[in-house]
Amino acid sequence: MSAVEVDNDRWIRRFHPAPDSATRLVCLPHAGGSASFFFPVSRALSPAVDVLAVQYPGRQDRHTEPTVDSVPELADLIFAALRPWLDRPLALFGHSMGATVGFEVARRLEQRAGIVPLALFASGRRAPSRYRDELVHTKDDDGLVRELTLLSGTDSRLLGDEEMLRMIIPAIRGDYRAIEAYRCEPGATLRAPIVAFTGDADPRTTLDEAQAWREHTESEFDLTVLSGGHFFVANHQSEILAAISARARTVSAS
User: What is the pLDDT, as a whole number, of residue 6?
Assistant: First the structure.
């Protein structure tokens, strides 16, 4: 595939620059999510880890841009945007759709740049090889709102603001279209370790589906089950950051 040219400033948010850190963490949002979701992560890890949060098209300051409704295409664009940031070891953290996107970005880093990430932290998403017949993206606007309410991923005040909803629903629909159409290449694995997190009451990921991430790495695998639903990360930030920091400390010590 020919090189993809992107405007890096549109794709990457660096809320707390940490130029002296030994490692970087690339954060990938959930469906309908934005880079600002990871502001607390950046604040907590800086200056030990240089956190880069990816901003997908179609939201916040990119709300006038069309969404990218293909996971492989989105991964290609993110990989291109990360090229200037490959001067030090990096890990990837993705929640929900972001975990799948992170897996595909990690594959591109390994296959096209010869860079094996420190780890892929896959949160709140079933393994890439596990499919469900889902058609959320075909629902009307009310149906999409009900889905968001079920997953408790959007502030209830936002759900009640029709003007704001009109702004974010196209992005949400495009993201769901991308993740629901995604099919993993058979036998796809990473050389990087995979660290998975799942909620014990997540309606979108069973324990078996989370365990299946083991099939996608030739290295170490670890699964942590935490209390909560799809957005369990909101109540377990300390445990997740501790796992990320442990990887970063290992690199710093070496």
Answer: 66
